[in-house]
Amino acid sequence: MELYKEVKQLTLEEVKKHDGVMEKTVWVVIRDIVYDVTEYMEDHPGGSDLILEHAGKDGTKDFENTGHSNDAKKELKKYKIGEIIEAERKGKIKNKEPKMETNSDEIQSICCLSYLFCGLCG
Ligand code: HEM
Question: How far is the CA of 92 from the centre of ligand 1 (A)?
Answer without folding.
Answer: 25
